[in-house]
Design goal:
Largest sheet of chain A: 5 strands, parallel
Largest interface: A-B, 41 and 47 residues
CATH superfamily of the domain at 29-215 and 243-249 in chain B: Glycoside hydrolase/deacetylase
Number of strands of chain A: 11
Shape of chain B: globular
Order of helices and strands of chain A: EHHEHHEHEHEEEHEEHEHHEH
CATH topology of the domain at 29-215 and 243-249 in chain B: TIM Barrel
Strand content of chain A: 15-25%
CATH superfamily of chain A: Glycoside hydrolase/deacetylase
Number of helices of chain B: 11
CATH class of chain A: Alpha Beta
Number of strands of chain B: 9
Structural class of chain B: alpha/beta
CATH class of the domain at 29-215 and 243-249 in chain B: Alpha Beta
CATH architecture of the domain at 29-215 and 243-249 in chain B: Alpha-Beta Barrel
Oligomer: heterodimer
Distance between the termini of chain A: 23 Å
Shape of chain A: globular
Helix content of chain B: 40-55%
CATH topology of chain A: TIM Barrel
Radius of gyration of chain A: 18 Å
Structural class of chain A: alpha/beta
């Protein structure tokens, strides 16, 4: 395995990303965000300000990936995220599964959601993470047409790379995440967003999850990889869990030779000439 | 306790609790006898009779615990269960606890027609009022993971309810909006990690596909203490949802007592839902 080279002789890198999905799926599949379907609103409403405070306290910049419909519901939050120096990435309009849509339906959603975010913060999104379902070559081509230079939907590696499309390298970086450093499997809890019979997920204890994350970070640092922290404010946003995020950041900061950066910097590094 | 200052308490604590309490603590109990299984499957025989554990064993143990610690709780009671166990409901009310509405047979309100929904709410309201002599003042939706309808809150308001507890979008009470307008009603939100069903529900309960790992009681207590520490220090509101049919087991009741004893060491206000809602509404008027 060839070693991935980081700038300034850093041994490994860390970035933080947050998927602010809101109640998009409840709206998409059921047209109802009330009662027990309201949990998604916890993210933009309560959790995002808390996360911004933690990031400020640690001097970190992150990427917030937001379906455009959620951005429309909470425009002030989106502007606040942007104004405090964080990147806004695209995540569909209503957290759609693009692989189930026709080409024109998908194109319409990319156009619409990109425009909504651009109108809100003055600049179109350049980073994308596919909301649900597999990422297709069709999606990748549309992203390139729309000026995106980053996709973060893959989970197959610990290292970022330049995307190859039909055998040719393109101006797009792949920033792979992992379920292990996603809060979803640990903290989602309760009913899953999808329609159908109610399905529940086990809830972990915050201090146990800190151990999973620290072990994974230590291992990634050892091999010189990229640690992509992917969290959903709905799940990580509880105080007990944010304290774990805080402890994780302390742990990362205490490790020498880690490039603690953000998605944009890594994209620029991958796509440098 | 952990690192402070993630939320900056004070600036965001919207309501002031009596006697300078730092945190309001609401303990709620879903009565949920056989109405749950009846609602889902019309079957309460064999292992589908698990709801019977609530009135027969769970609720009496909960009442003993609350009495011992001089804490008042809020019990959400489906009307169908109240009809079958009126003496049990009366006993809860006479001990000074609050009885609140929870549908008739644990319905999924998002699937009812508006007319049917109104009938269910009014019917359950009348049953509880007739038994206790006190009209319920609040509602929590049953059927986990299902939304309420666009009409539910209006119907509750029409019955003079002052709170709803069906939403999951906040850590503390807030004023309800109906059709974009604030009304005299408080939302008291709940969360999965502060609901015992997340950790101790049996695998074949209620006809729903509920399959969750069973957690050790002590493990759950530690998680709840972690949750309480954070909410006490940075939010000022702690809302626990307990199912006597699940929590009422002999090996689990000690952790509920452990949690109550733990919280009593802090400057907290143990309160019922209507006390919280009354106080919040009063403070909104004074603003």
């Amino acid at each position: 395995m060839e070693k991935f080279k980081w700038p300034n002789k850093y041994k490994s890198a860390v970035i933080f990303t947050f998927d602010v999905d809101g109640c998009a799926e409840q709206q998409l599949y059921e047209g109802n965000t009330l009662g027990h379907n309201s949990a998604g609103d916890y993210r933009p409403k309560i959790a995002v300000p808390r996360i911004l405070n933690i990031l400020d306290r640690h001097g970190l910049k992150a990427t917030f990936i937001i379906p455009a419909w959620v951005a429309q519901r909470f425009p002030q939050r989106v502007k606040e995220i942007h104004n405090r120096g964080h990147e806004i990435g695209a995540h569909g309009y209503l957290h759609e599964n693009f692989s189930t849509l026709s080409e024109s339906e998908e194109r319409e959603i990319h156009n619409k959601s990109g425009k909504i975010i651009a109108d809100m913060i003055g600049t179109p999104p350049k980073a994308f993470r596919t909301p649900g379902g597999p990422l297709t070559t069709r999606t990748m081509k549309m992203l390139l047409e729309n000026g995106y230079d980053c996709d973060s939907s893959s989970v197959k590696n610990y290292f970022p790379s330049r995307v190859k499309l039909e055998g040719k390298e393109v101006d797009m970086a792949e920033i792979p995440f992992s379920w292990l450093t996603d809060d979803f499997p640990y903290f989602w809890g309760g009913y899953e967003d999808k329609p159908g019979p109610p399905s529940f997920m086990p809830i972990s204890a915050p201090k146990d999850v800190l151990e999973y994350w620290m072990a994974e970070f230590d291992g990634i640092h050892e091999i010189g990889g990229l640690f992509v922290y992917l969290n959903h404010p709905r799940a990580i946003g509880r105080i007990s869990r944010l304290r774990v995020l805080d402890k994780l950041i302390h742990h990362i900061k205490a490790t020498p030779s880690v490039w603690i950066t953000n998605l944009r910097e890594v994209v620029n590094w991958v796509l440098r000439e | 306790m952990g690192a402070k200052g993630i939320v900056k308490k004070g600036s965001e604590m919207k309501f002031r609790w009596p006697n300078g309490a730092e945190c309001a603590v609401s303990l709620s109990f879903e009565y949920d006898a056989e109405s749950v299984e009846w609602g889902y499957s019309r079957n309460i025989e064999g292992a589908f009779d698990i709801g019977g554990f609530s009135p027969q064993f769970g609720v009496p143990r909960v009442l003993e615990l609350l009495n011992k610690h001089d804490v008042k709780g809020t019990f959400f009671v489906p009307g169908w269960d109240a009809e079958r166990y009126p003496d049990s409901i009366k006993e809860i009310a006479e001990a000074g606890h609050e009885i609140a509405a929870h549908g008739y047979t644990h319905e999924n309100f998002s699937e009812l027609t508006p007319r049917k929904e109104k009938d269910v709410l009014e019917k359950a309201h009348k049953i509880l009022t007739d038994i206790t002599g006190i009209p319920p003042r609040g509602f929590r939706a049953a059927a986990y993971g299902r939304p309420i309808s666009a009409k539910t809150l209006s119907f509750c308001r029409d019955m003079d309810y002052i709170y709803d507890s069906s939403f999951m979008d906040d850590d503390e009470p807030y004023q309800v909006k109906i059709d974009g307008k604030f009304v005299n009603m408080i939302e008291i939100p709940w969360a999965w990690p502060l609901n015992d069903i997340s950790f101790m529900s049996p695998p074949f309960s209620s006809g729903m596909s509920l399959v969750l790992p069973q957690r050790k009681p002590q493990w759950v207590l530690e998680l709840w203490k972690e949750e309480f520490d954070g909410l006490y220090e940075e939010v000022g509101f702690f809302n626990l949802v307990i199912h006597p049919r699940d929590m009422g087991r002999v090996s689990r009741m000690p952790i509920l007592e452990g949690l109550v004893s733990y919280m009593k060491r802090y400057n907290v206000w143990f309160t019922t839902y209507s006390q919280v809602a009354d106080l919040c509404l009063k403070q909104l008027v004074e603003r």
